[in-house]
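Q: My collaborator sent me two sequences in one message, no labels, and asked for predicted structures for both. Can we handle them in order? The first one she listed is below.
A: Yes, handling them in the order given. First sequence, followed by its structure tokens:
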Amino acid sequence: MSNYDWIFKDHPSRFFRLIMSAKVEKAMLILAVISTVATFADFIDPAATIAYLAAHQPVVAKALAAALIVLGFMLRGYLPKIYGTIEICIGLMVIRYTPDIVSPTIPAVLPLLTGAYVGVRGLDNIAKGLKAEKGVGRLFNILFRNPAKEKQK
């Protein structure tokens, strides 16, 4: 129960107990946090901020990129499935925004191959976080022969 237990003695209705319960209190707190985070885009335009940093504060932009490398590596170690999903999304965005190939030269094809490589790395990182015998890991094993079966000791 919540800190409002004293109210329940005077107001025994089920509806009032539900409204004042700890579960509803937590749900309302979660909704408040989600709505606050959702409004950050109205205050800070990420594209404009990155463009400003790149043009006027390149040292800060490079320091943030280096921090992103460390955070990404930590995410890859602790949550490989989430990191792999992000990698697949980035690979698909690279492929999507690659200019149309007019001539099959290496500079023209390189962005397309880079997107494909990032997508494969994403699938590999997802596979690292799966168990071969269960659920999605079993499907990965059937489709891609990945993840490798765990060695028995």
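Q: And the one she listed second?
A: Here it is, processed independently of the first:
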Amino acid sequence: MSESIRAFSPKEQEQTEALKPRPAELKGMSMHAALSPDFPQLPSKGSSSLLRQKLLALQRSIGNRRLRELIQRNRSATTSAREAEAFPARNAAIMRQPAPQAASLSPALLHQVGLDAINTYYGAAVRGIDLFVRDMSDYFNWAAFWGSLAGNLIWAAACFETGGTAFAISVGGIGLGTAASLTNPTKEGFSAAAETRTTELVTSMRNQVSATGDEVAAQGSAATPAWDENRTRLELLRRIGFRRDEIVVATGGLPDVDAPTITARTRSALLLKANEERMGVIGLTGGDAIYKYDLANYLESHYLGVTHSAKPVSDWQASFHSSEVFLPEGGDDALANIRRGMPGPVHVADWPIAKTIVVPADTTRRLQLEYVMIHLDAKNQLRSVELEGVFKDYAHDNSISWEDYGRQVIAKVWGTASSRPPDIP
């Protein structure tokens, strides 16, 4: 890959950040001269000596051509910051205007757009992994968790896949190998192993940017009318894997990947996986979404109200009382952290946790247990039904199996015979 499209190495990135000129150091420097297409001129001796030293060091580190590109990229940001400080009202009005649409990007610039997006993803994903590791308790079984992943990059799928086998096919296409077992079953061991797998993914993606960028550039130029910069960038990001609408945002009017969203989705995907229903040492363990409903017109009185029996489920009047999601892993903020990566209603039906229905919400009457408790597995299939009090008597007296009784109750409270739970706001 030529120098003009080569991505910065981690060492170069550190050097670049450390050596970037600060606004206070720009006094005395001719930006017109510095941005000349020829050799990037350094500030005169009368200007800041510190700035001169930094640019000399940066020139030796990354070369003349890369230095000129760095200055070009920073000119607009520096100018915008200076204008924003002097003309806040005018600048706010300008920022509300749609970004100008240039012609389709050249292959070289398109390659850099792709590499920058991939590098942004890597940094944000590693951040999400680190936050997840910090969330977990000291007693979490890291070896078992790594084994449950079975080589699946669940944290990457949360940012790339769009449903079905799209992401699986993409991963297969870039040739990721099978993940090794976790040799160090600790927080540090998992973090290192997950980052290694992410590095493998990112490296493979980088290797495809050149060919994909050439393909997008050629297709955009041949189109009638030719694609503008917005369409070209968006097409490239989609084709290299960023197909989720939540990940791609318009930064300054142009499509780019959003680092905070990537971090949040990476963290939430791992937290949700850590709380999935699974067989533990003493039985089933994992998260549970609990729905409670109040009941009316479900009792039949006998002997002037001395005794009662349950009415048929079809006669009941059920109303929603409350819902809660129990997550044993990830601390008290586990649900809040998951929702940061998955904003909006909680689609519990798609979560790999158990679901429970309780009717009535007040499970005791006259100090006696009296309830129906329905348990669904992580795939929303009916697992068991607990009956107590008048409900147990009714099922027994009418020879109704617990499965049939459970399905009748599900249809009453959820309005459908299917066992797909409603979203939680």
